[in-house]
Design a protein that fits this description.
The chain has 316 residues and is α+β, with helices and mostly antiparallel strands. The chain has two domains: 2-202, Hypothetical Protein Pfu-838710-001 (Beta Barrel); 217-315. The chain contains eleven helices and ten strands. The protein has an eight-stranded antiparallel β-barrel with strand order 1-6-4-3-2-7-8-9. α7 runs antiparallel to α8 (252-265) and α8 (252-265) packs antiparallel against α9 (276-287). The longest helix is centred in the C-terminal third of the chain and has 20 residues, at 225-244. The two termini are 26 Å apart.
Length: 316
């Protein structure tokens, strides 16, 4: 078992020539220990009634020219774009995963593994070119991957165009430090949803994003300082996805509410974090934007360094 710790960036708007140029400038300033690329084909499996989805598990077979591997990812944790999930990998020979090849300890007590195995069906695919760099950074080993391809389900197709930083060895602080340098490139947005989550939606098995209510007074009062800031960040990013990914302006009031919740969460803090003034400036800027200005601001993704600073503070 290994724990996958990663930060994902979606490419919001930057032309690829410009993005590639800026990425090369960053890479040339880093210590690259290896570089490669491969075409990866991935089939995701679940039962018709989404038994694995209900267990917060993701199951796939990944194939390339020189390997075939089955992977199951289990329930993990996420903070504003920083994701950590236990995952288990095993070689696979056929077209279907073999659940018995994974440790028995990952399954809930009493789970009928044979019935689950018999009910597995392919649900959607992701196929993409992965360009890969292994980076030595601040005592850590970090993988940078640029994935370009598509997710395909019965509900249609959706492009994959994203950058991922995955911590192989070393500290999460090093991962976040490198993410801040990468996130300074214009046009990158933090990716809150995984490829699997997007695939379930395209397969007609996931729900559309809808606006959320803000926490009640009782819920808010029960939270610690960090929990309040995290709740505000999650509210912001959820509604950001509605605005940017679904092109639905109904998410804008929720986005603004998320920023307000973060500011409210800092009330009473003994020491204000260094990003607090940036939060104040961002809120002031956004109150003056019309709908066209909102769309431009989202496509530039100028706010990503602020989100990353908040995530780093939450991890400290």
């Amino acid at each position: 078992m290994q724990t996958e710790i990663e930060i994902k960036f979606l490419i919001a708007s930057a032309p690829h020539d410009d993005l590639g140029h800026k990425l090369n400038i960053l890479l040339n300033s880093l210590t690259i220990t290896s570089h490669s690329q491969a075409l990866l084909g991935n089939t995701y499996f679940d039962t018709a009634d989404l038994a694995l989805r209900r267990l917060d598990m993701g199951l796939r077979i990944r194939r390339s020219d020189d390997f075939a591997e089955q992977t199951i990812k289990c329930r993990g944790q996420g903070v504003g774009g920083l994701h950590a999930r236990p995952e288990y990998n095993a070689p696979v020979m056929g077209d279907s995963p073999i659940l018995g090849d994974f440790p028995a300890t990952i399954w809930p007590k009493g789970e009928d593994l044979a019935a689950l195995q018999a009910a597995l069906l392919p649900q959607f695919r992701t196929d993409f070119l992965r360009r890969h760099w292994l980076i030595a950074y601040e005592g850590a080993e970090i993988e940078l991957a640029w994935d370009q391809g598509e997710i395909a389900g019965k509900g249609g197709c959706e492009a994959i165009d994203e950058l991922e930083l995955e911590l192989k060895t070393g500290s999460t602080a090093a991962l976040l430090a490198l993410a801040e340098r990468l996130g300074a490139i214009p046009g990158l947005r933090l990716g809150v949803q995984s490829k699997a989550q997007r695939g379930y939606r395209l397969a007609g098995l996931g729900k559309a994003l809808v606006p959320r209510a803000i926490p009640s007074v009782a819920q808010w009062d029960a939270l610690s300082l960090h929990q309040r800031v995290q709740a505000g960040l999650e509210h912001w990013q959820h509604h950001e996805q509605i605005c940017a990914l679904q092109e639905d302006v109904s998410g804008w009031p929720g986005l603004m509410a998320g920023l307000a919740l973060i500011a409210k969460g800092l009330d009473g803090a003994q020491e204000r974090p260094e990003w607090a003034q940036r939060l104040t400036d961002t809120r002031a800027e956004l109150t003056s934007l019309d709908e066209a200005g909102q769309a431009t601001w989202l496509s530039r993704a100028d706010y990503v360094p602020l989100q990353l600073a908040i995530i780093a503070w939450l991890q400290s």
